[in-house]
Amino acid sequence: MDEAETKTEATGPEEEKLVPVSEAIRYRKRAQEAERSAEELGGRVEELEASLGTTRDELDSMERRHAVDLALMREGAIDLETARLMTELTMESMKEGDATAAVSALRRDKPFLFRKRVGEAGGAMSAKVSQERMQAAEAGEQAARSGDRESLLRYLRARRT
Questions:
Q1: CA-CA distance, 101 to 95, in Å (whole number)?
Q2: Would the CA dihedral through 120, 126, 128, 134 be positive or negative?
């Protein structure tokens, strides 16, 4: 072996090992490729972590919106979009951001956004008309459960009056 073809590497304080130059060059290229690949993968990991953070924020936002929508539907919101926006504003001002509490506060402050609950306020109708509607509703439920023609006719007569 020539001196030009071999390269010495120290593996210990007393022991030296001869390595061909072409092999040393090949190892250097592999090391450089590995470093470049590690840098690319590191950049890709940073991109994926940023994407994951964005996705988590979007998921939290969707879950919060879903909780608000459920609470608004339970309370009988008339205009869901307007009520949602106002509820989100209320939630931002609250410390905990509880959707149910925010919807309750909105119902208390802006009752016109919600349907009236049964028995909540006296209407302009007489008790007789209200009672007739209740009887018609009961007859309708019975007709739906039984599927009987007589029940259906009873319900239709009750609705007519």
A1: 11
A2: negative
Handedness of CA 32, 33, 36, 41 (dihedral sign): negative
Residue reference for tokens 């009750």: 158
Alpha carbon distance 25, 117 (integer Å)? 84
Radius of gyration for the chain, computed over Cα atoms and rounded to the nearest angstrom: 38
Per-residue pLDDT tens over the stretch 33-50: 999 999 999 999 999 999
Residue 57 burial (CB count, 10 A): 10
Does residue 103 carry a pLDDT above 80?
Answer: yes
Is the model's pLDDT at 107 over the cut of 50? yes
Checking DSSP bridges between strand 6-10 and strand 16-20, what pairing results, if any? antiparallel
Beta carbons of 24 and 7 less than 8 angstroms apart: yes
Task: State how far the Cα of 21 lies from the Cα of 47, in Å rounded to an integer.
Answer: 39
